[in-house]
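ZP: hey, is the 2P0 complex queued? I don't see it on the tracker
AM: it wasn't, my bad. submitting now with these inputs:
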Amino acid sequence: MQGTAIAQPNIALIKYWGKRDVERNLPAVGSISITLRELHTRMSVTFDEVLAADTLTVNDAPDDRMLPRLSACLDRVAGKDRPRARILSSCNFPIAAGLASSASSFAALTVAVADAAGQSLSTAELASLAGQASGSAARSLLGGFVELRNTDDDIEVSSLCAADEWPLMVVVAITEAGPKPVGSTEAMEISRKTSPFFSSWVEQQEQDLDTARAAIAERDFQTLAAIAEHNCLKMHSVMWASRPPMVYWNAATMRCLQTVRRLQGQGVGVFFTIDAGPQIKAVCLPEFAAQVEAALRVTPGVTDIMTTGLGEGARLEHME
Ligand code: 2P0
């Protein structure tokens, strides 16, 4: 009746933006991500027949905001007539600020609730369930480089390369820790319905996935850097051209981007990516991590820095 799991967020190098089926939360496009190591979310689920309703505690404080989405995830895994549950969540990084907190939360929750319900599910089953809760969550089930593909009527995830087979580093520059103005779920629908670039975005995605997949197989950093930056800027162009426009960047985001460009000009192996928030993620070869971190730390507007390697997928944590 109890399960605890831990999962790390992932950062997409080839992005998921847009849905082909809103009801089932199926993505319009495939995506490729890296799972991080140092940032994590722990989710603990305890079913209790005595409880009248699900409860949620986030970082030791009662917090109902995410409860409807978490309860729906519990229903999908354990059935609607399940006992109510006490959910404890802890997270060591800012929530809902474009750092993929929903990915690690729903990956950990799906694994934890399956265990609490006494179910032994395959990665395919977990991916389908986690993906219905949050599209990017299915990718956090696996470690290292992960591809999410659309199948005929669902999604599937696979590992392209383990974390230790290409140990890239990621420097996350925080420019604003507050929650984002428009959540990704709503923003994606606005883009699909209004952006004149949305159809080209979807059409070109297979080509970007092919390029990135081959670059990862060959450990070709420059090719991966070029396609990841291109794909990221295309996604933001889709958002900027939406009505209303969605601009997640702030002035410091742009300054960080210029810092990365300057480093690249000096021969540093680094590239940027930006999600639905103002933070910059600078992905780099391990030998340049200290230099990238130092340069971003002194970039005006950067309030915090987190440097992390690549990590493993979601897993159960057994209590002593
Ligand atoms: C990604 N993002 O691939 C992209 C890039 C944000 C920008 O996946 O609606 O929170 O819950 O399926 O997973 C954020 O979207 O969206 C996301 P839902 P999710 O990482």
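AM: back. The two ends are 16 Å apart (CA to CA).
ZP: great, adding it to the tracker
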